[in-house]
C-alpha cells in the first residue's frame, strides 16, 4: 500500500522508533508500512495521522491513476 508516512514522519522530526513508541507498535511495523509491505488497520492509520499531525487523505490517499 503506497503512502506518505515516511515523509510525514521525517517532517515531524521522528525516527521510526519514536513514531512506533508513540503509537504502540514496533519499529519494524513502521518500516513495513513505509515500504508499502504492510497494510495497517484504519485505527493504526489514524494513530499515525494524529502523531504526525496530518490527515488520513494526506498520508494514505492514492489517486486512481497512480
Task: Indicate the topology.
Layout: H1 5-12, H2 16-23, H3 27-35, H4 42-52, H5 56-60
Helix pairs in contact: 2-3
Distance between the termini: 11 Å
Looking at the structure, what is the overall shape?
A: globular
Largest sheet report: none
How much strand content do the residues show? under 5%
Derived structural class: mainly alpha
Mean pLDDT: 94
Enumerate the spans where pLDDT stays under 50 for 5 or more consecutive residues. none
Can you walk through the features of this model?
- The chain is mainly α and 66 residues long.
- It is 62% helix and 0% strand.
- The protein has 5 helices and no strands.
- It has helices at residues 5-12, 16-23, 27-35, 42-52, 56-60.
- Helix 2 (16-23) crosses helix 3 (27-35).
- The chain is globular, with a radius of gyration of 11 Å.
- It starts with a helix and ends in a 6-residue tail after the last helix.
- The model has no long low-confidence stretch (mean pLDDT 94).
Q: Quick recap of the structure?
A:
This protein is mainly alpha-helical and 66 residues long. The protein has 5 helices and no strands.
Features:
mainly alpha; globular; 62% helix; 66 residues; 5 helices
Amino acid at each position: 500500500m503506497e503512502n506518505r508516512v515516511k515523509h510525514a514522519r521525517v517532517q515531524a522530526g521522528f525516527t521510526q522508533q519514536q513514531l512506533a513508541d508513540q503509537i504502540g507498535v514496533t519499529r519494524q511495523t513502521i518500516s513495513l508500512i513505509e515500504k508499502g509491505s504492510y497494510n495497517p488497520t484504519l485505527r493504526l492509520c489514524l494513530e499515525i495521522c494524529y502523531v504526525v499531525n496530518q490527515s488520513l487523505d494526506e498520508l494514505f490517499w492514492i489517486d486512481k491513476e497512480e
